[in-house]
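Appendix C. Worked example: Monosaccharide ABC transporter substrate-binding protein, CUT2 family
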Amino acid sequence: MAMNLRKLTAGVALGAALIVGAGAVTHAQDAKHSIVTVVKLSGIAWFNRMEEGVNEYAAETGHDATQVGPASADAALQVQMIEDLIAKKVDAITVVPNSPEALEPVLGKALDAGIKVIGHEASSLQNITYDVEAFDNAAYGRHLMEALAQAMGGEGEYAVFVGHLTAKTHNEWVDAAIEYQKEKYPNMTLVTDKLESNEQQQTAYQKTKELLRTYPNLKGIQGSAGEDVVGAALAVEEAGLDGKVKIVGTSLVSVAGPYLETGAIEMISFWDPAKAGIAMNKVASMAIAGEEVTDGMDLGVEGYNAIKLDGKVLYGQAWVDVTTDNMSEYDF
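Step 2, the predicted output written as structure tokens:
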């Protein structure tokens, strides 16, 4: 030791103190956090995949990381769940809001209780510690519109879906897509306001049937929620219009695969919800430990290897495009 100990008894006492101190440090490092991810809706493929990531993170770290979500995509139900988590005094809440605005008060309450709050698909949230986004939302929206425009030959009528009219991320994609269309493809026409699917395939199906009746010259549909393109594709196939109405949007191969194979869906894009789940939980653990998130940081999660930090919002580079040519590379 660097210290010169003059008496054996002092050395013994110091040694005992060091042993106790070392134990305390080890305990702090090994302390297990309780982190709960609150998703928009339970029981659909997108959030089932996210739960795989949450469970993987829990298994790898030993933290008590779990996922919950309402049976219907209802912000009020999410508020109730978060109130319950505040009462349980969890260490962190990660959340994918149905309506960021509706959750602001209860998330503020969580922060006041000392709970770290990590958002996802909600870059506008104020009552957060951090928000984790897979990519820049406007760039993604423009990317989807470019794919739709190419499929439509740069002209014709189209419509857009969002999961909810209050879903911040979906609206950012669609708003950027529409703006891009007006600038780059003036011969394309948006036939109606944004259509709301409520994150449900059946709703997207019914509304697409109505679209096809009302706008018989419709040539394209862009979806936002994971079930949108599938509901739309089913309606288009039933109408005998597959190949004539081009469909692109966000989904997973496990959901949209059959319609990619038939050509009813032109292309899907997505980020891996499992990776997003891991990234959110990792950032939550860092926040609990008082570790700073910095611009350019590598979170050690694919797609989040050089994050862009803008205020409290972290942006990755995590989107992928899937067509019939490469769908076999994805098993989720």
